[in-house]
Design brief:
The complex is a heterodimer of chains A (113) and B (110). Chain A has 113 residues and is an all-beta fold. Helix content of chain A is 0%, strand content 53%. In chain A, the strands form two sheets. In chain A, strands 2, 4, 5, 9, 10 and 11 form a six-stranded mixed sheet that branches. In chain A, strand 4 and strand 5 (45-51) form a beta hairpin. The radius of gyration of chain A is 13 Å and the shape is globular. Chain A starts with a strand and ends with a strand. The relative contact order of chain A is 0.34. In chain B, a hairpin with a 2-residue loop joins strand 5 and strand 6. Chain B is globular. In chain B, the strands form two sheets. In chain B, strands 2, 4, 5, 6, 9, 10 and 11 form a seven-stranded mixed sheet that branches. Chain B has 110 residues and is mostly beta strands. The chains are: A mainly beta (113), B mainly beta (110). At the A-B interface, strand 5 and strand 10 of A face strand 4, strand 5, strand 9 and strand 10 of B.
């Protein structure tokens, strides 16, 4: 049973527009959430995280929103750039830290020039 | 520079031939882990280690072994590889706020 779900395998967005990637989770013990970006032939790289005591965290063009009651988080990228084209994974932990991560299946984002 | 180094990057082997994938980190992290990535399944944890000589099974441990004799190294061992272990493998070193991943090892078992 997948505890972290990314229901959209792919997403295409025009350059300059907003990209919204979604992630749902089922385990109410999760208290720390992360987003990773992965290019082909490379390892995942950390993008942004959020603790369950917050509902929003922002870092430059990237914002993560957490809706605990809906068990839903989303990553907003504004404005989207062609270099953002990658697979995005959300991950969750019940340790309050980046240990013991459970990952979603990923969303392939394509930003069209 | 924070680094997780995996070797080899690519490996083709035959069923039953023992192999080891090495992983080393330079961040003095206590917690390290191994994941495999398969299409449509994301990253699934194979084994993790909370410190030297402390290891435990993740979600998909069957067919794998690990050891943690030193803090910086966390090798993944496949004693008798089978074709269903053909996958992309990632080692990770976990800090408090993020995990750092190696570049991956693409393993093909024929």
């Amino acid at each position: 049973d997948q505890q972290v779900k990314q229901n959209s395998p792919s997403l295409s967005v025009q350059e300059g527009r907003i990209s919204i990637l979604n992630c749902d989770y089922t385990n109410s013990m999760f208290d720390y959430f992360l987003w990773y970006k992965k290019y082909p032939a490379e390892g995942p790289t950390f993008l942004i995280s959020i603790s369950s005591i917050k509902d929003k965290n922002e870092d430059g063009r990237f914002t993560v929103f957490l809706n605990k009651s809906a068990k839903h988080l989303s990553l907003h990228i504004v404005p989207s750039q062609p270099g953002d084209s990658a697979v995005y994974f959300c991950a969750a932990s019940s340790s309050g830290s980046a240990r013991q991560l459970t990952f979603g299946s990923g969303t392939q984002l394509t930003v069209l020039p | 520079e924070a680094q997780v180094t995996q070797n080899p990057r690519y490996l083709i082997t035959v069923t039953g031939k023992k192999l080891t994938v090495t992983c080393s980190q330079n961040m003095n992290h206590e917690y390290m882990s191994w994941y495999r990535q398969d299409p449509g399944l994301g990253l699934r944890q194979i084994y993790y280690s909370m410190n030297v000589e402390v290891t435990d099974k993740g979600d998909v441990p069957e067919g794998y072994k690990v050891s943690r004799k030193e803090k910086r190294n966390f090798p993944l061992i496949l004693e008798s590889p089978s074709p269903n272990q053909t996958s992309l493998y990632f080692c990770a070193s976990h800090g408090g706020t993020e995990a750092f991943f190696g570049q991956g090892t693409r393993l093909t078992v024929v």
